[in-house]
Amino acid sequence: MNSAPIISKPQHARALLTLGLPLVGSHLAQMMLHVTDTVMLGWYGVLELASVVLGASLFFIIFILGAGFGQAVMPMVAQALGRGDEVQVRRDTRMGLWLSIGFGVLCYPVFWWSGSLLLALGQEPDVAATAQVYLRIAGLGMIPTLLVMSLKSYLAALEKTQVVLWVTVAAVVMNAGVNYALIFGNWGAPELGVKGAAIASVFTQAVTFVALALYAHWVPELKRFNLFQRFWRPDWQAMQQVYRIGWPIGLTGLAEGGLFQASAIMMGWIGTMELAAHGIALEVTALAFMVHLGLSNAATVRVGRAMGQNNAQSLRDGAKVALMMSLGFGVTMVVLFLTLPAQIIALFLDNANPQSASIVAFGTTLLALSALFQMVDATQVMALGFLRGMQDTKVPMWLAALSYWVIGIPASYVLAFPMGLGGPGLWLGLTVGLSVAAGLLLWRFWTTAPKPG
Question: Which residue ranges run through the membrane (predicted)?
Fold first, then answer.
């Protein structure tokens, strides 16, 4: 690879922040969609809340798997733009949309018969039945949700991240309004409970897709890509490429998500109070993680552009700057978690609850332990972003699976139960898995990234 043109480290930092901060905001807003559903159904009823939390978890697991195709669009479009190949931009994005539609159709039977699946997994019959009612409607939203992921990736690769942020924020407000009307029967709407929550989700996802599609199609500077030109025509070569890069991304996300799902299940074996504290501590950690994820997405675009331009120096310099920025934020979170853990946990609790003091005490320990994996969690997600920018997804998938499932989950179990460390042992196991992933993925990047000269 050649090394020209060269840009300075401060220029890399400015470009990453310009691109990444709106993506951070978008990820945080996306989390608020889940929080809104949880809060409103908590007001409505315990059975309904439990059912939708269960149903939403199943939806999310399947979404993570299918989202790999949409996420593959980001590095592919970035590289095509780096090469100046605008036709390939359209081809890759269009087939990302096709694969998203196909996955959404194929997975819908899981939602239709989800009650039997949840019963087989040991859930209470009334909870499983109500979750199925929710998922039979909410499952229709899988297609627009995956299409939104593809369009967000396309627009991010084009460095149009402001629109991604504001459309996501608008979606949060819209979802809250439709939830308020349809769950409780306000403003003259029928009271539909969990069905209302499902309809609100599907409606919000569909409107979000339409808004992003109209932006991508009508904004003058994007019209030259003709994104929806002859959309009905298959492009088998581009589809094969998007599939090749996308399915390992989906499985990598599933492996990481599985690590935290397994930790929640094992924490439930320890006790209800411990599980509540675990959930709060993970929620706080996830909020911090959104910053690293947004910077990782920006790094994917920057690395992809550098790859397309055959600019090895820019690729490596940009990766170093992105990693340092992410680690810098990680240090800030470490200080916060070590100095104010009890105050942070208490924000999520009602002081009048007699169990609150115990949850705060246990959660304080977990949040202090989460400070241990802030840096390695930042490192592993940044390394994944770099590798995706290079369209290197299959080997990272295996490295992630090894780190999380072969090392992380067994380490959590052994530390928590045979060694008797309980909940703190579970979190130490998470740290072990994330540390191995960070080391292996960063090693993979620095040994395979093109060198200048």
Answer: 12-29, 49-74, 95-113, 133-151, 163-184, 196-216, 249-270, 276-300, 321-349, 355-376, 397-419, 425-446
For 340-421, where are the alpha helices, taking DSSP H only?
341-346, 356-389, 394-401, 409-416
CB crowding 325-341: b at 16 or more within 10 Å, else e = bbeebbeebbebbeeeb
Q: Are 201 and 128 in contact (CB under 8 A)?
A: no
Residue 3 pLDDT level (bands cut at 50, 70, 90): very low
Q: Of all helices (H) and strands (E), which one includes residue 245?
A: helix 236-270
Q: 165 pLDDT exceeds 60?
A: yes
403 backbone dihedrals φ, ψ, rounded to 5°: -65, -45
Is residue 2 helix, strand or coil? strand
CA distance 39 to 129: 21
Work out the number of other CB atoms within 10 angstroms of the CB of residue 188: 6
Query: Tokens 């997804």 — which residue?
Result: 393
Q: How many C-beta atoms lie closer than 10 Å to residue 451's C-beta?
A: 11
Using the predicted structure, report yes or no on whether residue 413 has a pLDDT greater than 90. Answer: yes
**Averaged pLDDT of the chain:** 90
Cα separation, 11 vs 29, whole angstroms: 28
C-beta neighbour count of 215 within 10 angstroms: 16
- The whole-number pLDDT of residue 274 equals 83
Tell me the domain boundaries of the chain: 1-234, 248-453
Say whether pLDDT at 97 is over 50. yes
Residue 443 confidence (pLDDT): 97
- Count the neighbouring beta carbons within 10 Å of the beta carbon of residue 5: 9
The secondary structure of 87-136, three-state, reads HHHHHHHHHHHHHHHHHHHHHHHHHHCHHHHHHHCCCCHHHHHHHHHHHH
Q: How many helices and strands, by DSSP H and E, does the chain display?
A: 16, 0
pLDDT digits (tens, 9 = 90+) for 228-265: 888 899 899 999 999 999 999 999 999 988 888 888 78
3-state secondary structure of 233: coil
For residue 399, give the nearest of 391, 407, 389, 410 by alpha carbon: 407
The span from the CA of 447 to the CA of 442, in Å, is 9
Lowest-confidence pick of 181-195, 242-256, 348-362: 348-362
At 255 the three-state DSSP class reads helix
